[in-house]
Amino acid sequence: MINRSTHVAEARTDARADARVDAGATVRSWAPVFWRLAIFAVWAAIVALAEFHHQFWRDEVRALSLALNADTLFSIPAAVHGEGHPVLWYLLLRVSYDIFGTKAVLPLLNLLIAAAAVIIFLWRAPFPLWWKALFVFSAIVAYEYSVISRNYSIVMLLMFVYAAVYTVPRRSPLWLVLILFFLTQTHVIATLLVPFYLFIWFSDWWSARKTGPKDRLFWIILASFVSSAGMLAAFATVFPTNNDLVLQAFPDDGRILHAIGSAILDPGHFYCEPPASEQSPYCWTGPLRLGDAARTVLLYLMVASLAVRPPLLLSALGGLWGTVLFFQLVYMGYYRHQAIWIIFLITLYWIEFAARGQALQIRPSIKSRLLLSSFYEAFALFLVINLGIGKVYIDTVHEISKSRALADLLQTSTDLHNAIILPEPEQIAEAIPYYVDNDIYLLREGKFGKFATWSSRTSKLDLTPHDILATARSLKEETGRPVLIVLQWPVIETELNQLREFATPPLWRFSYDGEDAREFLAATRKLPLGPKAILEDFDVYLLQ
Predict the structure, then answer these.
(1) Relative to the CA of 502, which of 77, 293, 369, 529 has its CA 20 to 30 Å away?
(2) Using alpha carbons only, how large is the chain's radius of gyration in Å?
(3) Where are the domains of the chain?
(4) Other Cβ atoms within 10 Å of 178 Cβ, number
């Protein structure tokens, strides 16, 4: 009897112990999911707060205006020809607008794409949770590719999808082909990086050809042809451009050689946010500012550990040098442009981390330690000095553009609700159509429209306040509607013979002397629009 009772007690004790073990295992298995959800929820809250306060500016709204200006979905490639971007973002905007019928698709579509990218990264990337959190709260994900509604979020999503598909044990090569094609239609810089993905794919096939590669060579050849077709389509959409006023002059041999040298020896000079002051020797990098040499060292440290797998190292260096050449010879790169290579580099580490798997945590080799050191330290430092909270704070506390303030004035004023807007320069009014549908007259091009064309062939290069007044009076006389003159340039009384000149782009010149200023100020009334905006600031004058 005693033995039986003892056995029963022991059985109950074992059962309770097993239950505690099962409960502990369950908690541990749910912990990563909980933290992923927590990171995503905090990211979503930060982005939602910033988006609520965000004023759209011209580069965001211009894409929507171009997409809606096309007669049909199929005419979008022709409508956006020469704009500088492939067609995918415009197509998505037009389809979304045709379905929902609201301009709110601009931020909502971008937020949906960014959220999908964050979810894939948090759940599929083979990185530790703390590093994932650091990236999610960096300026790239917390602001540039989420709050700012442009085509960059698609680049991030497709690159992450490509890395996730590429690293699964039993992948579908057809998906890789399709993803690379769509990636060529997102951004010119992303298009230039696609050949490196193909190079890595071929290198992996070559290394595994004797042991049995994951994919047949046929799929790599097919991907090369399809991607090449996508690249040709992208460049045919981008070039030639009618916006010749914003193009850099074709470089000579000396400039090209200098650009190549700078790309190799000083890439850090081109991988930063341009400074607020041109006299500043440093670029804007949040609370921590680094000189060119320090940023160059940091970039090469971020890449260095990929030496454990030469095709990845060559792709990372090729992408870095190629983007720096692009920034010198085509157009200057802001952080949103530079971040495309950062995302690309993350996917290269994704591929390598996934290939090594558990070996990185269990008795890592010297090569694995090198990989972890460069990735965790140098890359983490780069993300720390570019945290997104600073940009979110600025966008939340300060006005980025006065477009919404002007729209509020138009909507609340019974006298101005149907006013014609006459902007100088023309692009300063490109964000206004998101908020109101008032007619905009593009004086330099002599037509009504919602976006500027920076063409030396079809636009008037020189303007004065007298020209603006003459056009404004003509519009008011013909339509009987009030005319609001929107000026980026300050008009102040000066000495009669003192000439003031402004220009943007370089050949769109605006000038006046003291007599022009007096005439303009006497014929108009300046309307209050609140505090100065950081990015798009302008004054509004009502023609009397």
Answers:
(1) 529
(2) 28
(3) 21-397, 403-543
(4) 17
